[in-house]
Write a structure and sequence with these properties.
Length: 280
């Protein structure tokens, strides 16, 4: 009943929630359906980050501008300038840096973002005085993918970093770039590393050259990335200097959800989700 109660509350409050949560009509209806049935055996594969991320995004969107600002602060650790129309972008797709590669679906995005023309979920940077973007990689139990289809050195976390660094419109990129990894707290605090993202996050945080090597490692020179088929900025080393990399937890995000008409249902859902954690 907890999941159905949350789905029903979201449906009742959708006019408020969807004003601050950007997703297509099809995405909204599909996620409501999955949320309502997420504890059923046939839907056990949907119990992970997709439903939790949806519930989380709705909880902050329901608190309107205040909720978007709070989520921004939790994700970035800072208070960048509020967009004119603050929104939480769910499962959004920036233009891929490599033309022959498909769009990367970003779990959640915040910032000075606008929808690409003639798309439901495509995004691009907004033309404002000080553009910024935050893109997230949400992981519940599963690990990041260790590779991508076309370039074997790029893991899933790096692909989000690459999309954030290359996020642009007409050649203008974000002045501040944030990439945030979100996992359960017990994995962040674990005394031993059990996921690839443990290693890559530590490596990228301690030495930014590791990001550059993984991005450029399959090319002889950086100029290769400016040939037809690539959407790379003029200097990736300079772009990396704009990056803030952070790791936060679902636990902190759910425990800090602001007051709203759906706060109680989201808190009950989070309590049920905690019971579904695997035991060790």
């Amino acid at each position: 009943m907890v999941a159905k109660d949350l789905s029903g509350a979201l449906e009742r409050e959708q006019d408020t929630v969807r004003k601050y949560l950007q997703c297509s009509d099809a995405q909204w209806q599909d996620l409501l359906r999955i949320t309502a049935r997420c504890w059923e055996r046939d839907y056990e594969e949907q119990r992970d980050e997709q439903v939790r991320t949806f519930a989380l995004a709705c909880a902050y969107a329901a608190a309107r501008e205040r909720g978007v600002a709070l989520l921004t602060e939790l994700f970035t650790g800072e208070r960048p300038e509020d967009p004119d129309e603050p929104r939480i972008w769910l499962e959004a797709m920036p233009v891929p840096p490599l033309k022959r590669e498909g769009n990367t679906q970003i779990d959640l995005a915040l910032g000075t973002i606008t929808r690409r023309k003639d798309t439901d979920s495509g995004i691009e940077i907004e033309d404002v005085r000080a553009p910024w973007v935050c893109m997230t990689e949400m992981k519940w139990i599963r690990d990041i993918s260790p590779e991508t289809r076309h370039l074997c050195h790029r893991n899933q976390l790096l692909r989000v970093i690459e999309n954030a660094l290359c996020f642009q419109k007409n050649g203008r990129c974000a002045e501040r770039v944030y990439v945030t990894l979100v996992t359960p707290a017990f994995l962040l605090s674990a005394p031993v590393k059990s996921r690839l993202y443990h290693y890559k996050y530590e490596e990228y945080s301690s030495d930014r050259r590791a990001i550059l090597w993984d991005l450029m490692g399959t090319c002889r020179t950086e100029e290769h990335r400016h040939e037809p088929g690539w959407y790379y900025p003029s200097s990736m080393p300079a772009r990396i200097e704009t990056l803030t990399l952070r790791w936060v937890t679902y636990d902190d995000l759910f425990e800090n959800i602001p007051d709203s008409a759906i706060q109680g249902q989201v808190q009950e859902f989070w309590g049920q989700a905690q019971k579904a954690l695997p035991t060790f």
